[in-house]
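Escalated from tier 1: FE2/S2 (inorganic) cluster holo job.
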Amino acid sequence: MYEIKFKQVLNPVTKMLVVQAPDIAKVCKAGQFVMIRVNETGERFPLTIADFDREKGTVTIVFQEVGKSTQLLGRLEVGDEILDFVGPLGKATHTDDIGTVVVIGGGCGSAIAYPVARAFKEAGNHLITINGARSMSLLLYREEMKKISDEAYETTDDGSCGVHGFVTTVLGDLIQQGRKIDLVFAVGPVPMMKFVAKTTEDKKIPTIVSLNSIMVDGTGMCGACRVTVGGQMKFACVDGPEFDGHEVDFDELMGRLNAYTKQEEKSEELYASESGGS
Amino acid sequence: MADEKKPKRKRKPPTKKEPMPEQDPSVRRGNFEEVALGYAAEAAIREAEKCMQCRNPKCVAGCPVDVPIKEFIALVREGKFMEAAEKIKETNTLPAICGRVCPQETQCEAKCIYGIRNEAIAIGRLERFVADFAREKGEPLPELPEKIGKQVAVVGSGPAGLTCAGDLIKLGYDVTIFEAFHKPGGVLMYGIPEFRLPKDIVEAEVEFLEKLGVKIRYNYVVGKIRQVKELMEEDGFDAVFLGTGAGAPNFMRIPGMTLVDVFSANEFLTRVNLMKGYLFPEYDTPVKIGQKVAVIGGGNVAMDAARTSLRLGAEEVYIVYRRSREQMPARLEEVHHAEEEGVQFKLLINPTEVIGDEKGNVIGMKCIRMELGEKDASGRRRPVPIEGSEFVMDVDTVIVAIGNSPNPIVTESIPGLELSKWGTIVIDEETGMSSIPGIFAGGDIVTGAATVISAMGAGKTAAEGIHKYLSEKKD
Ligand SMILES: Cc1cc2nc3c(=O)[nH]c(=O)nc-3n(C[C@H](O)[C@H](O)[C@H](O)COP(=O)(O)OP(=O)(O)OC[C@H]3O[C@@H](n4cnc5c(N)ncnc54)[C@H](O)[C@@H]3O)c2cc1C
Ligand code: FES
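Tier 2 regenerated the structure:
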């Protein structure tokens, strides 16, 4: 059992939990993920490690409540326990010193982008961050991002904060201006990652994306997470979750992510009715 | 003494096994309860009484874990079921499981001398009866020797790991199993369906081991959370057994394998068995099943996936296999059960493409007919495509059950570990030791996907190997 040590509501749909998991905290690295099962009847689902504290033995997760499982998780309070918490899984991000790096986080993805950005900064890179969301209230990790960035941009779809537009608006501008960019790292909704990869394609700027496939085991034993990368089948849980954005078949990924929409709705409805819609 | 030599004595007709009571096929294809119901005591005694108690029994030579078959059957004849169970457990840690899923027809029962003229003694069914009887009665714990004061780590809680752990604890070692999943049993838990092997039986067998003192740590992916080297150098384990199985699913190299309604049998069965997806939405893990399901493959895994599909409500379920019926690696009993339940066999057919619509849903499967040609390396006649025989099969779900490869997480995390070209661990057959002293291995991770009992045999061999190694090792 994995005890929750701290909880924070980041915005109306996003929560952060700091979980006691010393063995994982000891060895995990930015870019890796954990598999979670909240209770005995729960499903297993992956969440990227948003932060960790080796001394306190904690692992931080940030998630959007998008279905029954994340809602269940979001209901847990400090002192409650998560039944299963498996990790660290997947490959870690390579955060070498390569020059100028643009780290892009979209929506909940900013929580995952943050430790990666920090690692790039610590490695000695010139760090540009682009933090995007639909609206100001949904922007995450604003101060944290600014603090570690050499240049920090914010974008909102509705213009309520920062640049009015998408993360690709800013990225496109930077490229237009002829800025030397050695690497782009993007994590967020699939369409966002797809368009980031499109934006950098012409100039062949190396672009890494972190994929959030459906997973069952997270250890390479089921293939639920398979994605096509460069025409080859890869398992996101063991070969990734990070891949070359120019090689990923995003449309296929989107289709696969929607595979269980009907069942998920049913599960969520039932849960809402059982829990009195609260 | 009467003279036995009568000329031309009329021989009795060959006897058959006591029949196994089973759920009716038309009923069971709609539920997940166990298909075979098990012998009643009278039937077990009747069956046991046929055993000739051969002076030189051959049956035991067919058993990879040397179950004292003759002796336990003798006890069944006397109605001493608890004693019979104890007898089996002397060499077999998981009899209720073996009695259900072992291919006895190619092992002990194939060697049965009574079976030369008759149907062999139903050794598997008797084993199952005895194990179930003892479990329901509550088994006494065997006496354990004093602790040796040495620790062994077992990685993976499939049949190989469980057997190795059980044997080592009985020798006086401290044993900790590290398991990646949240439940024990490996394939027994996530692969083989409830209707063939009820999960509470697996859990009961594991609980018995825990009562003997075996510790189990779940959610512990060795190679990720901790390295084998660290287990040995920092955590005080004197030896490590790797029983991590062949869990990585193979897909076909044809277009359409990443479509939404294409699943590996592993994913499909894991959702249903381990995650209890058949109880959705009571359990949260969803399972997708269409009306017309093609299961590609001809092994036990394919049969399990097909029979599970039926139970989830699919209307038509096809086994699509590129060779002929005789060459199917599945156990005869499983094929028979699948057929009874209404699974349709499409033999000598090979898929060449799974066709999807723009959303990634499966709308058909292109296939080609095959015929048998020359023998290949495996000694089976090689299937060759018949030119111009392509056709499209009307299906909306495809389950791929064409085999599993070793999961590389552990093996890749151990520098210097010798692997075969298939990624399996190379061991010394006699001791189970790998190329690195103190690291042992067995089961599917060594042989590639095989059987429960061969994995158990390997766990046993390794336990002996570990005992020998640690007894001889001077610290
Ligand atoms: C659907 C299906 C049906 C089958 N039917 C039959 C049958 O009827 N009869 C029969 O004899 N055989 C059958 N088999 C084959 C049989 O189940 C296997 O040969 C046997 O289970 C192999 O045992 P094992 O202990 O080597 O590995 P597994 O049972 O695969 O167990 C390996 C365990 O190791 C764990 N593990 C893996 N990596 C790690 C890690 N890094 N850290 C910690 N733990 C790890 C896994 O989670 C798993 O629990 C079937 C197989 C399948 C898939
Ligand atoms: S989640 Fe099962 S293989 Fe990746």
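Residues 211 and 241 of chain A are 5 Å apart (CA to CA).
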